[in-house]
Write a structure and sequence with these properties.
The chain is α/β, with parallel strands linked by helices. It is built from nine helices and 14 strands. The strands form four sheets. The chain has a five-stranded mixed β-sheet with strand order 3-2-1-4-7, sandwiched between helices. A five-stranded mixed β-sheet has the order 10-9-8-13-14. Strands 5-6 form a two-stranded antiparallel sheet. It is globular, with a radius of gyration of 20 Å.
């Protein structure tokens, strides 16, 4: 009889929903993914209740004690303690929440089980490095562009968190752009990078530049679709924002020299005006000797990436070999 592989319960906690899955040490998601709404407007204690709920449901489905529990959570996370140290404000009353202690207080059966908590973008990157578009690469820069911009750098399958748990997180940096395109400012300061380059900025700038007044869809994906259909304003906006990311990626390449850059989230699509502008700007800003050494890949695991990454580091904390 074949030996049963160790199984972890993995959680992906976002600002809108919280998902949980059973993940084997071979990187397979087993059974059904359970989701509940994240009570972002209520905050810490209510969110801990939701995490405990989805974990308990997967525990019942597993019908045995899991090898570990892994959580990828929104916000800057002290991954050694499992405590939220900073937050963008999407979730209220979140900073200072001790996720590990809060979960143990709610789960009598989990007192001795290893629990690993990390930032959700880091978990996403780990998942792609382990079983996705970055598999086999010794170093991988992961950038997710959607409602915001998340970034993480993996070396030999591990995320470099930095001294203050924000390694790679460029989305909230204030970056001035002088490309002739519209920008968000904060008084005399530039707006945050994601305010000027992520999905919501596409819709905002599309309207500012005279895009269709009927454009009421609140997602940047709407503008991407218009660009694919040849809308000239949408094409211009996506090119501007794609080029801005390409500029920032050129800095990353020269600082970190990643083997692979993996792009995820709802915005990046190969063969789009956004992707072409991003790649063109990236390459033209690099030294000539580096231009044929940058490999861009589209993320392949979609919403499963953070679940797999959360499970991977939980297995590591438990001392379990993964494949």
């Amino acid at each position: 009889m074949a030996k049963t592989l160790p199984t972890a319960i993995a959680v992906d906690l976002g600002g809108t929903k919280t998902a949980a899955a059973l993940v084997s040490s071979q990187g397979e998601i087993l059974g059904k993914i359970i989701t509940e709404r994240t009570p972002s407007s209520i905050g810490g204690e209510a969110i801990l209740d939701v995490i405990a709920s989805v974990v308990t449901q997967q525990y019942a489905a597993l019908s045995e004690t899991p090898a570990a529990i892994g959580i990828g959570a929104a916000g800057s996370i002290d991954a050694e303690r499992g405590v939220v140290v900073n937050s963008s404000g999407t979730i209220v009353n979140w900073i200072g929440t001790d996720i590990v202690s809060g979960l143990r207080a709610r789960l009598d059966w989990a007192q001795e089980i290893p629990i690993k908590v990390q930032n959700d973008a880091d978990a996403h990157a780990l998942g792609e490095s382990w079983q996705g578009a970055g598999r086999g690469a010794q170093s991988m820069l992961m950038v997710a562009v959607g409602t915001g911009i998340g970034c993480a750098f993996c070396v030999n399958g591990a995320v470099l968190h930095g001294a203050h748990h924000i390694g790679g997180e460029i989305g909230t940096a204030r970056i001035p752009f002088h490309d002739g395109g519209p920008v968000v400012t904060d008084g005399a300061l530039p707006g945050k990078f994601e305010q000027n380059s992520a999905g919501p900025a596409m819709l905002r700038f599309y309207r500012e530049l005279g895009g269709a007044a009927s454009a009421s869809n609140p997602r940047g994906q709407f503008v991407m679709e218009l660009a694919e259909n040849g809308d000239p304003v949408a094409v211009r906006v996506t090119q501007i924002l794609g080029a801005r990311l390409g500029e920032v990626l050129s800095w990353y390449v020269m600082m970190l020299d990643p083997e692979v850059i993996v792009l995820g989230g709802g915005v990046p699509k190969p063969q789009s005006a956004w992707w072409e502008a991003m790649e063109k700007r990236l390459l033209e800003l690099l030294p000539e000797y580096m231009r044929n050494k940058v490999e861009l890949r589209r993320a392949s695991l979609k919403s499963n990436a953070a679940l797999l990454g959360a499970a991977l580091d939980a297995f590591r904390l438990a001392g379990i070999e993964t494949y």
